[in-house]
Amino acid sequence: MPEAAAKKIVCQNRKARHDYFILEKVEAGMVLVGTEVKSLRLGRANLKDSYARIKNGEVFVLNLHIGAYPFAARGNHDPLRPRKLLLHVHEIRRLTGKVEEKGQALIPLEIYFNKRGHAKVTLALAKGKRKYDKRESIRKREEDRELQRAKRDHRSG
Description:
The chain is an alpha+beta fold. The chain is built from 5 helices and 9 strands. The strands form 2 sheets. A 7-stranded antiparallel beta sheet has the order 1-8-9-2-7-5-4. A hairpin with a 2-residue loop joins strand 4 and strand 5 (58-62). It is globular, with a radius of gyration of 19 Å.
């Protein structure tokens, strides 16, 4: 079974690929309460403006919005609470060293359920793009589209 078919993507942070150079990716588990898991299964999550921080040897994702579960009578969760991420100690140490370098950040790219039904987040070690980098990326993407169009038109015509 292919890996892509084994995971059910809940939400993605498309803006992150526009605003950052993705240097490497890491998969992490999340510590969630019951209503958060149920909300995620309904697709009620938003990664916009979320980021991860390392505090006291633990990784937390901040500004991750998981909407309230609509069928909970009481005891619903806080939608923006900091959520602990589950990583191995050696991974946290390695990421700590890289994040302390100038201009690097931990950005969540997507939240998904793996084939075992566990909620996971893909974290990216990223470096921020400047305005001219973004323009360069857009120009390159447009050139690639034009090239693909030219190839397609040449084959059909």
